[in-house]
Amino acid sequence: MSDQRPSDRPGPTEPPSAPQYQQPQYQQPPQYRPQDAALFERSAPVGSDGRPPLWAPWYGIGFVQAYARYWRKSVRFDGRASRSEFWWVYLWNVGISIVLGVVWGVGFAQSGRETYTTPSGVETVVTEPSALYLIMGYVGTLWILAIVLPSLALAWRRLHDANLAGPFFFLGLVPFFGGIALLVLYLLDSKPAGARFDRPEGSR
Prior knowledge:
Blueprint: H1 34-41, H2 63-72, H3 83-110, E1 112-118, E2 121-128, H4 131-161, H5 177-186
Helix pairs in contact: 2-3, 3-4
């Protein structure tokens, strides 16, 4: 008979604990950030003067530079135009049109007029136009004619920058909804795939 107490007796052998498996830590893929795409999209080539060549888009262009570039590329339908290129020019043209309209209005106020009542309403007719009224009428007409082609080319290139074909411009001919759709397209972000519309001058 053993003289050992139950607490002193050796118990059953416990199996060794299994080694703890630690799950390897995998590096998380980099998170997508819109600013990374913006940097990629704005990797336009730069010329010897530190500016993009004329055939390439210019992202972040300034107010005055955008308008000068607009006239230099007035008949170019190839390539792309950044949103800043497009909207700075739009602001320029709207501002100039307002100024011309105001001056024309002054000429209209200086002109002799007669008011008639017709079945459709009241009409005012200029009977003795002032010199300013006539001059600004011609200037305004020439101004509109001058910006038609360059503005069409700019819109074409803006669509290219969003990786859309230029003929999407004609959506604007659809009454009401076409103009809204075209405005949305002009506001689209730049797409790197739009480079397919570029025609580098050195490759011609």
